Please model this.
Amino acid sequence: MKDDEIYGLLKVPDEVIIKELRLQLGKATSYIQELEYENKRLKDESPEEKKAIRKEKIFNEYRDKITQLQRIIARLKKENEQLLIKSIKKWNL
Model:
C-alpha cells in the first residue's frame, strides 16, 4: 500500500495522517478550553479586576513590542557599523 505511487509521489500511510490529525485536534481542543476558562474567569471578575487584567495585558503587549524594537535597533546598529566599515575600507584603498 505505502509503495503505491500517485503522480510520481508515494502515498502517505493513513496511520500517519490520523496521528497528525489527532495532534492538531488535541491542540485545538486545548486552545478552546483555555479560551472557555478565560471567558468564565472574566465573567466572574469585578469591573476593577477586569480593568486590571486589561492593563496587564496591554502592558505585556507593549513590553513585548519594546523588546522586539530593541532587537531591531541592535540589528540595525550592527548593519550600520558593518556598512560604515565597508565604506571606510572602500575609500581608503
